[in-house]
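Run log // design_07
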């Protein structure tokens, strides 16, 4: 019999439902150590309950007060997917209640909030805490990761990583909390997208020493959804030029893009690594492909492999079939649940750790300073 990990979900919006859908298709995984089960859900708005009631008849608790889930001994772990201004208070309360937590990025609205969350984690080392980031679980990115661990690139010349959206190019779309500083934070698009772009770089130890940031805002007013318009306060786009010291002592540039207004993109996450011996890239814009460079030192050619479905945790899907966003979400959840049940396995690519969220806040805080000063700033880690 598989171990059951009993979950409470706080925040039943876009991401709360993605989690529930992954739970509903857990049978897709061939050899997961445990089975998640949703026992209780919480949202401040009852509108979110209907979908969960309809699709998950086994859910016992529907509440608008998240503390009801924390007090419930039938719940082992919480997924918390709420606006950024609520991360600090809710994550700290969850951790102190002794429940495991997969929290959403940016893991605190700002550096101060992140520091407080990390202090609560260090006081409660028995709880497993990770931050959500699903894109490295695409098989094409896994291939790039295996190139990195096999040192196929030689000395690194440059890294480019990014996450580019285009949904805010639709100027008729009513504004939501993601465009308001009180809920989303001063980081703007960097808070929304930065942790995704940084997951693999930080795991590789590519911690920027300095950053030069170009942040831009292009649209001042957006529809409020009630016939009027309202100020759109947050940064639309960010380009960060970072200086990273490689393991071999050579410094290299790392260019990070985090954009909510990127023409031609939908929800595109990418990573490109160039080195003296080789280069490779993966983008969710062409999710089946792993591109790598064949080079004899003089002539070079990009090659494209269709990697198929070869995820971290095997599934019932044949390896020649194609992999997508909801498959990546399922893999991220399988990884988190493995963390809870088995403990950190050295052979799996883990979800974002609290320490990696700390480093991302150090970078994003320095990026805000750089944009203000117009100079490159030291990233204080
Ligand atoms: N991993 C990803 O790919 C990804 C994608 C989008 C968003 N996110 C992150 O997920 C989090 C939530 O984003 P979303 O897109 O799901 O937002 P959303 O607006 O769709 O959902 C947020 C939900 O939180 C609820 N909520 C607000 N205040 C609450 C309270 N006090 N108690 C209980 N519920 C409350 C809202 O009613 C809403 O249903 C954010 O941190 C965001 O950055 C992650």
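design_07 sequence
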């Amino acid at each position: 019999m598989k171990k059951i990990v009993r979950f409470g979900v706080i925040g039943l919006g876009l991401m709360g439902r993605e989690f529930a859908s992954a739970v509903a298709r857990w049978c897709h995984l061939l050899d997961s150590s445990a089975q998640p089960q949703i026992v209780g859900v919480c949202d401040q708005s009852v509108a979110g309950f209907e979908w969960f009631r309809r699709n998950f008849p086994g859910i016992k608790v529907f509440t608008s007060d998240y503390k009801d889930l924390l007090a419930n001994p039938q719940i082992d772990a919480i997924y918390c997917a709420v606006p950024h201004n609520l991360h600090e208070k809710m994550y700290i309360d969850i951790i102190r209640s002794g429940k495991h937590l997969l929290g959403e990025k940016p893991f605190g609205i700002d550096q101060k909030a992140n520091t407080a969350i990390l202090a609560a984690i260090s006081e409660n080392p028995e709880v497993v805490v990770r931050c959500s980031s699903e894109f490295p679980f695409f098989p094409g990115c896994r291939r790039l990761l295996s190139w990195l661990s096999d040192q196929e690139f030689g000395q690194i010349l440059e890294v480019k990583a990014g996450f580019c959206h285009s949904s805010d190019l639709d100027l008729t779309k009513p504004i939501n909390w993601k465009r308001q500083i009180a809920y989303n934070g001063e980081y703007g698009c960097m808070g929304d997208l930065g942790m995704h772009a940084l997951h693999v770089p930080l795991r590789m130890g590519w911690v920027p020493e300095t950053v030069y940031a170009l942040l831009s805002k292009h649209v001042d007013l957006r529809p409020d959804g009630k016939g009027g318009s309202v100020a759109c306060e947050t940064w639309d786009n960010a380009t960060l030029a970072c200086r990273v010291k490689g393991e071999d002592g050579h410094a290299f540039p790392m260019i990070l893009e985090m954009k909510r207004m990127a023409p031609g993109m939908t929800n595109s996450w990418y990573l490109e690594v160039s080195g003296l011996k080789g280069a490779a890239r993966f983008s969710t814009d062409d999710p089946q492909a792993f591109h790598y460079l064949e080079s004899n030192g003089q002539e070079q050619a990009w090659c494209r492999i269709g990697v198929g479905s070869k995820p971290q945790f095997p599934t019932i899907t044949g390896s020649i079939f194609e992999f997508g966003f909801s498959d990546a979400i399922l893999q991220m959840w399988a990884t988190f649940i493995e963390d809870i049940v088995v403990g950190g396995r050295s052979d799996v690519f883990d979800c974002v750790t609290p320490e990696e969220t700390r480093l991302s806040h150090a970078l994003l805080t320095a990026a805000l300073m750089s944009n203000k000063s117009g100079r490159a700033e030291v990233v204080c880690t």
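The chain has two domains: 3-131, 136-313+353-378.
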